[in-house]
């Protein structure tokens, strides 16, 4: 009997009609395995995963394969986005056994959850042979299987352990990390490494902050080159905005077409901060279009942001997005069709399957002649209208707390920078204003949803769907990303309740997730016990739990002046510093927060009756050093510690600048404020 029909996870629901007798992750499944004395087959994936769909079609929908699975195993299906703790434990085991990981992940475990054989995708013939081999080994070589499982648990316990060498995250260490990234940088194509090539958003955020602290021209050039290469490549949707998960090649041409909330949130921050720093028009446009993608395509009214758009459309990857020259002519006519083919690098040979091409921007349009820009915008609008009539990829409507936190922070930053650069003379001023309005609504919707639905009895839940919260408990990254988001929202709105909520989340994290060495576990001390307690300190597709919680601690300490949160952040970063020193590419968010701590961070309070229009506020946002917090509003506003006991000077709007809890004299002119922030 398949038991997934009542699941809240879209991924599990995709498998609810399989002939496999799937169980969700639950104690009852393992009890059933003990009763039957059979191994557990744990299959882990997520809704937007292309190869998860392939394995499902080949094996899990096949009656003969399902009979083998049902006869010899208890089969458990896990959504990695809903249960990142389960995923982390078994992914560590898979990497330990095979040297690599990925999804779908296929794990064979004892009835107590101990993994003894792990892999990823298996073609049907291979999977059938594997099922037979594992079943035979369980019956005839049980002692060897159990010894193998014990060895795997010992290995992953060591890999996930807390404790070990600690060191302060110093300026010298961060300078070394920036130098290491520069050495590993792809000078030709931008980014780091070869195929498949992932957007290095957290490393780019670190390099932008490193540039602000040191003036390193090399750091900002790496960001500009990579940002332009990604934006003009197939990774970026040239019609509707939004970035795909990764490029299957080393030069950003053909993407793996799924679009993840976390990638787009983190990339929005990169392009927003690059725009803020340089005024670059391409960065401005891409930030705007990414914000619009989040608000239009992933936001669910009255809820938060959905997790992802699928890689496949009707079982075909890229079906919605690719074009041939003939299709361009059919939509645009001969002249504009040739113009679009040339501009978007659509050729007869194609760059994708069956002669189709992924749209890439061959030339600069942001600084082109006004007539060229007007024609480009017209072509984009007509192609998008035609594309909207095609079948569309499915959307994973699951709301993940951590990823929504990343999106809220990104949209808050975007709105601040958009306000700084607003000009009625811009040719697309109305479009920008419209995007800011809808992005603000989506951001507030998501924050209200997290506060009202995901917070249950003072604890954070990981997921929700259709306004109903799921059972999985929040993990460390949820607490960190949501706390950082609430701090960002507090700065944007001046509302004290967001800061209060952030403090409550951080207090839970300190009480329930902290480790004796100053680090953190990824799960709470009262969470479900797995074969090992995960504690991964590295930043991968998203910030690690440690990096996320440190970001929240640093922002909250700066906004409240409560030093114990800063001390906790410094202690936690000391557990990551040795990894920053050796593996800079996998500690980008930790290094980003480290730059904020080195910078102070600055605490800037602007006392004014006009927080939206006061030049002091604009100057504070424009010139704020890395990681600074900025709050503006009337004196002694309830719930806003940075405005407490800070009056107007001579009746004029006044800026108060502190750094690391040491304050400078209040100033009333923009020039004086800029000098203090320099």
Task: List the topology elements.
Elements: H1 10-14, E1 22-24, H2 27-36, E2 40-45, H3 50-60, H4 63-72, E3 74-79, H5 84-98, E4 105-109, E5 115-119, H6 124-140, H7 142-159, H8 171-184, H9 201-214, H10 217-232, E6 246-247, E7 255-256, E8 259-260, H11 261-278, H12 281-298, E9 306-309, E10 312-313, E11 316-317, H13 325-332, H14 334-343, H15 370-387, E12 395-400, H16 401-420, H17 429-454, E13 455-456, E14 459-460, E15 463-465, E16 468-469, H18 476-493, H19 496-512, H20 545-560, H21 563-582, H22 588-599, E17 602-607, H23 615-623, E18 629-633, E19 654-659, E20 662-663, H24 670-677
Parallel strand pairs: 1-3, 2-3, 17-18
Antiparallel strand pairs: 2-4, 4-5, 6-7, 8-9, 9-12, 10-11, 12-15, 13-14, 15-16, 17-19, 19-20
Helix pairs in contact: 4-6, 5-7, 8-9, 8-21, 9-10, 9-11, 9-22, 11-12, 11-16, 12-17, 13-14, 16-17, 16-18, 18-19, 18-20, 19-20, 20-21, 20-22, 21-22, 23-24
Please state the CA-atom Rg, rounded to the nearest Å.
Answer: 26 Å
Proportion of residues in β-strands: 5-15%
The parts where pLDDT drops under 50 for at least 5 residues are none
Question: Percent helix among the residues?
Answer: 40-55%
Number of distinct beta strands: 20
Largest sheet: 5 strands, mixed
Mean of residue pLDDT values: 93
Structural class: alpha+beta
Query: Roughly how many Å apart are the termini?
Result: 66 Å
Identify the strand order in the major beta sheet: 1-3-2-4-5
* Total helical elements: 24
- Multimerization status: single chain
Morphology call: globular
List keywords for this structure.
five-stranded mixed β-sheet, five-stranded antiparallel β-sheet, alpha+beta, 678 residues, globular
């Amino acid at each position: 009997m398949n038991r997934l029909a009542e699941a809240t996870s879209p991924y599990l629901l995709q498998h609810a009609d399989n002939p496999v007798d799937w169980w969700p992750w639950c104690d009852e499944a393992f009890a059933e395995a003990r009763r039957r004395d059979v191994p557990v087959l744990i299959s882990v994936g997520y809704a937007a995963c292309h190869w998860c769909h392939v394995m499902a079609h080949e094996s899990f929908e096949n009656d003969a394969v399902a009979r083998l699975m049902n006869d010899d195993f208890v089969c458990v299906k896990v959504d990695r986005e809903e249960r990142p703790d389960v995923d982390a434990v078994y992914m560590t085991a898979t990497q330990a056994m095979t040297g690599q990981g990925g999804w779908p992940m296929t794990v064979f475990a004892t009835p107590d959850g101990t993994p003894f054989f792990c892999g990823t995708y298996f073609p049907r013939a291979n999977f059938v042979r594997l099922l037979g081999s594992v079943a035979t080994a369980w019956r005839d070589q049980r002692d060897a299987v159990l010894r193998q499982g014990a060895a795997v648990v010992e290995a992953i316990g060591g890999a996930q352990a807390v404790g070990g060498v600690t060191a302060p995250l110093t300026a010298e260490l961060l300078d070394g990390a920036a130098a290491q990234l520069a050495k590993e940088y792809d000078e030709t194509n931008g980014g780091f490494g070869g195929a498949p090539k992932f957007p290095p958003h957290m490393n780019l955020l670190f390099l932008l902050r490193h540039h602000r602290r040191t003036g390193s021209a090399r750091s900002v050039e790496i960001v500009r080159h990579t940002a332009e290469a990604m934006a003009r490549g197939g990774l970026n949707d040239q019609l509707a905005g939004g970035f795909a998960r990764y490029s299957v090649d080393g030069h950003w041409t053909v993407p793996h077409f799924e679009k993840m909330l976390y990638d787009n949130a983190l990339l929005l921050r990169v392009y927003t901060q690059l725009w803020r720093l340089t005024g670059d028009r391409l960065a401005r446009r891409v930030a705007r279009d990414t914000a619009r993608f989040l608000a239009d395509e992933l936001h669910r009214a009255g809820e938060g942001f959905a997790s992802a758009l699928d890689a496949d459309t009707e079982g075909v990857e890229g079906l919605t997005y690719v074009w041939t020259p003939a299709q361009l002519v059919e939509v645009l006519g001969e002249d504009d069709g040739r113009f679009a083919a040339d501009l978007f690098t659509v050729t007869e040979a194609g760059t994708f399957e069956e002669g189709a091409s992924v749209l890439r921007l061959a030339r600069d349009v942001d600084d082109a002649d006004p007539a060229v820009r007007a024609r480009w915008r017209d072509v984009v609008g007509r192609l998008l209208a035609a594309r909207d009539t095609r079948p569309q990829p499915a959307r994973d409507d699951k709301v993940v707390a951590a990823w929504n936190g990343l999106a809220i922070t990104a949209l808050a930053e975007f709105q601040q920078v958009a306000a700084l650069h607003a000009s009625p003379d811009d040719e697309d001023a109305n479009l920008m204003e419209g995007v800011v309005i809808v992005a603000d609504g989506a951001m507030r919707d998501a924050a209200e949803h997290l506060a009202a639905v995901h917070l249950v009895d003072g604890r954070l839940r990981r997921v929700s769907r259709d306004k109903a919260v799921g059972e999985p408990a929040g993990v460390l990254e949820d607490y960190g990303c949501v706390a950082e988001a609430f701090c960002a929202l507090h700065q944007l709105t001046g509302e004290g309740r967001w800061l209060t909520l952030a403090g409550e989340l951080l207090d839970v994290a300190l009480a329930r997730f902290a480790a004796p060495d100053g680090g953190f576990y990824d799960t709470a001390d009262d969470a479900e016990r797995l074969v090992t307690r995960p504690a991964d300190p590295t930043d991968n597709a998203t910030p690690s739990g440690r990096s996320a919680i440190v970001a929240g601690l640093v922002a909250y300490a700066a906004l409240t002046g409560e030093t114990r949160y800063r001390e906790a952040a410094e202690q936690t970063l000391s557990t990551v510093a040795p990894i920053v020193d050796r593996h800079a590419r996998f500690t980008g968010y930790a290094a980003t927060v480290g730059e904020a701590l080195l910078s102070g961070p600055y605490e800037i309070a602007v006392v004014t009756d006009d927080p939206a229009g006061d030049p002091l506020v604009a100057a504070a946002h424009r010139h704020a050093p890395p990681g600074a917090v900025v709050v503006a509003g009337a004196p002694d506003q309830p719930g806003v510690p940075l405005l407490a006991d800070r009056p107007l000077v001579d009746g004029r709007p006044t800026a108060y600048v502190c750094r690391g809890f040491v304050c400078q004299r209040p100033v009333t002119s923009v020039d004086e404020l800029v000098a203090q922030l320099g």
